[in-house]
Amino acid sequence: MMTAKQYRARADLMDKATEDSSNEAVVVECQRMAKEWRRLAALADWQDSMLEDGHPAY
C-alpha cells in the first residue's frame, strides 16, 4: 500500500497530464484517475489516523 503523499503525487501527475493534453478522451480519463488517487489519499490519511489513535482494528 502506498502512502497518502504518494497517492497525492499521482493525482498531481494526472492533473498535469490533463493540462498538457488536447485530447478530450485523455482529459476525461486523467480527471477520473486524479479523483480516484485523491480518494485513496484520503483513505490512507484515515487509516494513518486510526493507527495513531490505537484503534483496535489496526
Structure description:
With 58 residues, the protein is mostly helical. It has one domain. 79% of the residues lie in helices and 0% in strands. It contains two helices and no strands. α1 (4-20) runs antiparallel to α2. The radius of gyration is 14 Å and the shape is elongated.
User: What structural category characterises the helix and strand content?
Assistant: mainly alpha
Amino-to-carboxy terminus distance: 15 Å
Give the overall form. Answer: elongated
Rg for CA atoms: 14 Å
Mean pLDDT, to the nearest integer, reads 93
Count of DSSP-assigned helices: 2
> How many separate structural domains?
1
Order of helices and strands: HH
Q: Segments where pLDDT lies below 50 for 5+ residues?
A: none
* Approximate strand percentage: under 5%
Task: Give helix % range.
Answer: over 70%
Largest sheet: none
